Amino acid sequence: MSAADQGAPRRSWLVRLWAFVVELWDVLRRPSSVFGLGVLVFAGFVAGVVFWGGFNTALEVTNTEKFCTGCHEMRDNVFAELKPTIHFSNRSGVRASCPDCHVPHNWTDKIARKMQASKEVWGHLFGTINTREKFVDHRLELALHEWARFKANDSLECRNCHSAESMDITKQSPRASVAHQRFLFTGEKTCIDCHKGIAHHLPDMRGIPGWQ
Amino acid sequence: MIGKHWLLALAIISATASTSLVAQTVSSGLRGPTPLNEEGPAAPMTPLRNTTEKKVRSYPEQPPVIPHTTEGYQIDMNGNKCLSCHARARTAESQAPMVSITHFMDRDGQFLASVSPRRFFCTECHVPQNVVKPPVDNDFIDIDTLLSRAAPGGRR
Questions:
Q1: What is the pLDDT of residues A168-185, one digit of tens each?
Q2: How many Å from the N-terminal Cα to the C-terminal Cα in chain B?
Q3: C-alpha to C-alpha distance for A104 and A57, rounded to whole angstroms
């Protein structure tokens, strides 16, 4: 009855959407006959600033301790383990929060890491590590990923704060001084080779080089 | 009448005794001058000795004390940070003393290939040392000192 009232039968939504896309394309591919070139360039510039700024602001929001500890997987496991360590609270009051170590500071590397992190969103949505037991079961796999990343980039995130050049070995304990001169300064080893498990608990270390 | 006097005396004695106990200040090395019924301020945390220099053992069976800090060292079923340097295979790289062979022995006296599970938890016996002035003097005399006090020419 209703179809008869409207005269011609309504086309399906797919056909109408296609018609809209074709029409939009027709408008976009032709030069404007209404707006001046200056207006278009200026509007494009403003829109660019707004979108680029918005994008980077949103990106920085995802790069905060508050955001990282927003889901209970991080808050109850790795963040709780970080709290008693020197990277969370220390005499000088400098804190290394999650992204300082886990997100590259260089822009392109950061974007690559953020794209990888979509897997982590998937894991959150489907509850891959949503209980302590599941997290502990996955701890070795997760740790291996991070160790591989640190090894591949020569512990870049450590070196953002701890550079070998500004290290005063006379201020270090004899043990640390000897080890750093022998392995770090010669480039034989990188930070993560010896300093595993300094911010979070270790997984089962059987078979990991340097561990028993 | 005598009973009444005794009771009064007893009351006075007990009263003075209890007040003197409350007011009593025992100047102890550990407590300081804080009265016994009060809680004093917590002593400041002292740094750990971190010289890496061996300390002499007070007696041969003493587990050697750790001459470096062990802050944040994980020792549990997942791993043992101490063994990253002190395990047999790691000592060439670390130049640290190897875990004694006695630690490889199980309770039946059988030597295992590596550290026995009952000797796995290092800090049960070996402890790092804090840099402190001992609040109580220690007059322990080790056996060599004791023997050297023997009369010259006497029995050894």
A1: 999 999 999 999 999 999
A2: 72
A3: 17
Measured distance CA(A198)–CA(A161) in Å, rounded: 15
Taking Cα atoms as reference points, which of A172, A102, A80 lies closest to residue A88?
A: A80
Angle, helices A118-125 vs A107-116, to 10°: value is: 30
> What is the model's pTM?
0.77
Pairwise CA distance, residues A88 & A84, whole Å: 7
Measured CA to CA in angstroms, residue B148 lies from B61, B138, B152, B156 at distances of: 20, 20, 9, 9
- Chain B closest-CA separation from residue A205 CA (Å): 5
Q: Is B119 on the interface with A (CB under 8 A)?
A: no
Specify the DSSP class assigned to residue B72. T
Tell me the two tokens of residue A28: 């976009």
Q: How many CB pairs under 8 A join A and B?
A: 47
SS3 category, A60: helix
DSSP A160-201: TT--STT--GGGS-HHHHHHIIIIITTTSS-HHHH--SSSS-
Long-range CB contacts for residues A101-106, cutoff 8 Å, separation at least 24:
A101/A157, A101/A158, A101/A199, A102/A146, A102/A157, A103/A63, A103/A157, A104/A153, A104/A156, A104/A157, A105/A157, A105/A160
Q: Are A83 and A74 contacting, i.e. CB atoms less than 8 angstroms apart?
A: no
| Helix or strand (DSSP H, E) at B76 | strand B75-76
Q: Does B52 touch chain A (CB under 8 A)?
A: yes
- Does ipTM top 0.85? no
